[in-house]
């Protein structure tokens, strides 16, 4: 039985232009799967996670906009925690806590702990372990969770879980 030319053409086009830019089972996909497991959140739209783990030097489709949302969610999480711990906390204390917890240094430490330097895609010559790169990717990850869940609550939960685990491991190392 011969394959009709129109079907053959469709099969050739489908093979030449796969719908997924990253091949299933690739190292990047495997790393993204491990990251989801590590953060305790499974993406419904995995392209958001791919974008979050893509630096601006690598592609125009990157996580910079997601990082803006991720920073806001991280600061919100820290402020919420400060007020939950002390309902009478001064505004300056809450602001300081939000700034401190969402700082680049703390952010980069959390990102390094979850393995972002080994996952984030960067252009040649860019250090994937540099604090601004790691922090930007972590913030983009938190922003991607918020967009995927259509809720900053989910992003806050992921950020606080990662922050608490990192803080506990730092304390244990002392």
TrEMBL record:
InterPro entries: RNase_III_dom, RNase_III_sf. GO terms for molecular function: ribonuclease III activity. One of its GO terms (biological process) is RNA processing. The keyword Signal applies. Residues 1-24 form the signal peptide. Keywords: Signal. It comes from Eragrostis curvula (weeping love grass). PROSITE patterns: RNASE_3_2. Residues 32-150 form the RNase III domain. The keyword Signal applies. This is RNase III domain-containing protein.
């Amino acid at each position: 039985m011969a394959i009709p030319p129109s079907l053959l053409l469709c099969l050739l086009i489908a093979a030449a232009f796969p719908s997924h830019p990253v091949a299933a089972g690739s190292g990047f996909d495997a790393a993204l799967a491990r990251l989801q497991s590590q953060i305790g959140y499974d993406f419904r739209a995995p392209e958001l996670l791919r974008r979050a783990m893509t630096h601006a030097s690598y592609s125009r489709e990157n996580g910079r906009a997601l990082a803006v949302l991720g920073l806001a969610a991280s600061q919100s999480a820290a402020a919420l925690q400060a007020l939950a711990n002390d309902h009478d906390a001064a505004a300056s204390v809450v602001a300081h806590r939000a700034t401190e917890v969402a700082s680049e240094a703390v952010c980069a430490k959390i990102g390094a702990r979850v393995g972002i330097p080994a996952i984030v895609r960067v252009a040649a010559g860019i250090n994937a372990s540099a604090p601004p790169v790691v922090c930007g990717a972590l913030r983009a990850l938190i922003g991607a969770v918020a967009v995927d869940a259509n809720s900053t609550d989910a992003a806050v939960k992921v950020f606080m879980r990662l922050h608490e685990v990192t803080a506990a491991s730092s304390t244990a190392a002392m």
